[in-house]
Amino acid sequence: MELLCSSTKPTKNARLRFTMQNDLDILRQVLVENPFEDPSRWQSINNSINAITGKDFSVRATREHTEYLLKLFAKEDLSKLRKSGTEESYLEKERLLQEITDLKRDFCNKSILKPKLNITSKSKKEGSKTREAALVNCSNKSSLIAVTNITPSNIETQVDDNQDCQIVDIENLHSNPDSPLNPEESSSSSSTLLVPYKSRKRNYNDQQVKSDILKYLRERSDKENRLKEQQIEIENKRIQLKEQKLLLEEQKYQIEKEERLSLIENMKNQQQLLANVIAQLTTNKN
Known about the structure:
Layout (H helix, E strand, L loop, with lengths): L3 E3 L8 E3 L2 H14 L7 H13 L5 H16 L3 H4 L5 H26 L7 H29 L16 E5 H6 L7 H4 L5 E5 L9 H80 L1
C-alpha cells in the first residue's frame, strides 16, 4: 500500500506517489537530521526531498509517509514495505528503518525518564522553620495571655513578713495606669488591694503552659515529617519500578532487534545462495 500525496502545484487532479527511491531518500534525510529531537526539522527534510526528487511533496505528506513506513516495519509487514526495486534497495530500506526506529526509541526514552525525587532534606528544613516560627508566636501569645489575664480576682494576697508591700487603688489603677503609685492617695480610696511589690504569685504557671504548647508543636511537626518521608519513599519506589519496567522493555527490544537482524542476514544469505545456484545451472546449460 502506497501513501498518496496531493501536489501543491496548480495542475488539476495531479497526485504524487512515493517510489522506492523516494522512500530511501526520505529515510536517509530523516536519519541525518533527526526530527524526533526537533519536530521543526521536518520542514528542512521536506525541502531537501523536494530538491532531490524534483517533486512537490508537502511537509505533512512526508512526515506521515515516514510514520507509515515505521509502523509497517514495527509490524514486520515486509511485503508492503517492498516495492519495485532491487534486493539491495530492500536491504538498505530495512536497515534505515531499523536505525530510525532505534533513534526514535532513544529520544522517547529520554523524554520519559525523570530524576528521582530527593526532597527529604528540604522538607526537614521547612518543618524546622515552621516549628521555630510557631515557637516565637507561642512565646508572644503566652506573654499576652499572662498580661491580659491579670485581674484583681486572680491575684493572691499572700505577703511574707519580710516583703515590702504597697496599697494599690484599683479604681485609679484602671483609670490611669501610667500614674505612679502613691500610698497617701491610695489610702483614701474605698476599694483597695494589698499586692506584693517584689513578687506576685499567680494562680497559673506560664512556664507550664509554654512547655505544653511546645511539646504539642514538636509532636505535630515530627508527625508531619514522618508522613512526608513516607510519601517520598513511596514515590521513589514508584519511580524505581517504572525504571525497572523501562529496562525490561529495553532488554526485550534489544533481543527482538538481534532476532530481526539475524533474520535479515539469513534472508540475505539464502538469496545469495539461490543466486549462486541459478548462476551455476545457467553455466551448466551453456
